[in-house]
Amino acid sequence: MLKPDTCLFAVFAFLFLLPGCGTNPVTHKRELHLISESQELAIGQENYIPARQQQGGDYIVDAELTAYVQSVGNKLVAVADRQLPYEFVVLNDSMPNAWAMPGGKIAFNRGLLYELNSEAELAAVLSHEIVHAAARHSAKKMEAGMLLQGAVMAAGVAAQDKSYANLIVGGAQLSSQLIATKFGRDEESEADLYGMRYMKRAGYDPRAAVTLQETFVRLRKDNKSSFIEGLFASHPPSDERVAANKATLAELGEGGVWGKEIYAQKVGKLKASQAAYKAYDEGVQALAKGDVNQAAALAKKAAEAEPREARFQELLGDIALKQNRNKEALDYYQRAIDIQPDYFRPYVQKGVALNNLGRHAEAEPLLRRSNELLPTASSYFMLGQIAEDRGNLDIALQHYEIAAGSNSDAGKSSMARLVRLDLPRNPARYLQASAQADSMGYVYAVVYNPTSAAVANVHVRVVRFDAATRQPDAQSGSLLVAAKIAPGQRGQLLLEGLRVYKQADMKLLRVVIEKAELAK
Ligand SMILES: [Zn+2]
Predict the structure, then answer these.
(1) What's the predicted TM-score (pTM) here?
(2) What is the pLDDT of residue 19?
(3) Which of 41-55, 160-174, 336-350, 470-484 has the highest mean pLDDT?
(4) What is the mean pLDDT of the chain?
(5) Closest CA to 23 of 42, 2, 4, 43
(6) How far from chain centre, in Å, is Cα 116?
(7) Measured at the alpha carbon of residue 512, what is the angle toward residues 511 and 516, in degrees to the nearest 5?
(8) In this model, does residue 491 exceed pLDDT 90?
(9) Are strands 87-91 and 105-109 parallel, antiparallel or unpaired?
(10) Is 437 within 8 Å of 494 (Cβ atoms)?
(11) What is the per-residue pLDDT for 165?
(12) Which of 115, 119, 121, 129 is an active site residue?
């Protein structure tokens, strides 16, 4: 195994990727960096907003609580080994989780704050996340992903089960990969070790990192599912980690601030409204299962307990939308937008309600706004339909093309529309053609239709290339391959008078799609 102890190693890797050399700012070991520091900061900057959008958005009901989490984070980064443009937010998500992006962009879920008992425990989680960012842990994963040509990243996305992850299109897909990054044992130990050092430097008792880890191990043994899907998925707890943290504690020495009273006071309002958020989460699940009455009762309970929460108004809107009470849904969504104008989902949903009412022109700016916050296949699909209805096919095609990049119902519908509009204009983009010989040397022009639409009147031209010059030396006229080819089927035509006996000669034949229509 080669160890990049010196920058000479870069000479070998240079041929492939032009890497840079650097020093791990936390451990001060020399490393190869394929992603430069300025790229790292840009990745954090560009992905922080879309990542927050897909996890319920920022928790804004209690601004003082966010300011408190930020103040604890800032005490820790003041003593960290690497200065970055650190930022901390509390997300409106009940799943107990926290994450850090490249460039020091950190998020802490509302759901994890319920589970902690002191400021020192909050500092333990925050300092751990700070080290993940400072030591470039997810940047290194990206570098490994780049070396594997994105295979690792793509697998990470497919494995995710977040409701919005499948709907996100374009560059913002990277944000869902970044927040689902799973860390290995070495990265977890490094984050624990340096995290405890930062706690000590900032005046907290590092023992809180040990007791918190013990709690996590216990929760994991109890199979507390929200933790398994949340924090433990990316930061697995273990008895070894507890033992290592105890050794670090012996080295650093116990003692320091716990801050149990101040923590209890700061999360007081959050804990008082916990039942309302539980009702909301259950209401969302009930609606997804189609139990509208149960969902309505739970949403009403939540909204009465906490009228300032935009998500509760949005759920009331979703229930009205489901019952086809579109005008009522509009009011709920507008209330959600008024409370929290920088969250994407009520804009999408209000767009759906307006579309249902035939008010397409009013839906358009809302869908555009939602795409600025988080680009989704649902919004692009509706924008494509609006453009198509208006007769603006080029714009419609652009929108459908973006939406078709997502593995969702809206993505599949967009692909179907894209094929319908564009296939007659660009049949070669959608149909696959080749020349194939049978055992007797008879040659066929074969066309495969991978789309979901039946095609008709498929014409091809067969071109033969000269073996020596590689230039075309003969070509057929326009040939009808098949009157109709169903989705997923092939059509073929025997090329009369042409026989080929050597595989090398087959390689000199090209079948070019000339034209095709959609079957009536
Ligand atoms: Zn971790």
Answers:
(1) 0.84
(2) 53
(3) 336-350
(4) 88
(5) 4
(6) 28
(7) 120
(8) yes
(9) parallel
(10) no
(11) 74
(12) 129
C-alpha–C-alpha distance, residues 328 and 369, integer Å? 21
Neighbouring C-beta atoms of residue 366, cutoff 10 Å: 23
In angstroms, what is the span from residue 106 Cα to ligand 1's centroid? Answer: 12
Distance 132 CA to ligand 1 centre (A): 7
CA angle 48, 201, 107 (to 5 degrees): 15
How buried is residue 214: exposed, middle or buried, by Cβ count under 10 Å (0-12/13-18/19+)?
A: middle
Which amino acid is present at 80? A
Do 195 and 131 contact (CB within 8 A), yes or no? yes
Half-sphere exposure of 405 (CA within 13 A, CB side): 17
pLDDT recorded at residue 184: 81
The pLDDT-based confidence of 340 (bands split at 50, 70, 90) is very high
Query: d(Cα 70, Cα 88) in Å, to the nearest integer?
Result: 5
Q: What separation in Å is there between the alpha carbon of 194 and the centre of ligand 1?
A: 12
pLDDT digits (tens, 9 = 90+) for 285-313: 999 999 999 999 999 999 999 999 999 99
d(CA 515, CA 513): 6
Give the bridge partners for 459, in sequence order.
480, 515
CA 95 to centroid of ligand 1, rounded, Å? 16
Phi, psi of 154 (to 5 degrees): -60, -40
Rounded to the nearest angstrom, the distance between the alpha carbon of 197 and the centre of ligand 1 is 15
In this structure, is the dihedral angle defined by the CA atoms of residues 236, 240, 246 and 248, taken in order, positive or negative? negative
Report how far ligand 1's centroid is from the alpha carbon of 41 (Å): 20
Q: Give the three-class secondary structure for 84.
A: coil
Q: List, in sequence order, every residue forming a beta bridge with 190; answer none if it has no partner.
A: none
C-alpha 187 – ligand 1 centre gap (Å):
7
What span, in angstroms and rounded, lies between the C-alpha atoms of 439 and 444?
12
Per residue in 98-154, pLDDT tens? 999 999 999 999 999 999 999 999 999 999 999 999 888 888 877 777 544 343 344
Query: What is the 98 CA–ligand 1 centroid distance (Å)?
Result: 9
**Tokens standing for residue 350:** 């209000």
Segment 234-247 mean pLDDT: 87
Tokens of 227: 């933790």
Query: For residues 433 and 445, is the Cβ–Cβ distance under 8 A?
Result: yes
Q: Answer yes or no: 129 catalytic.
A: yes
Three-class DSSP labels, 461-491: EEEEECCCCCCEEEECCCEEEEEEECCCCEE
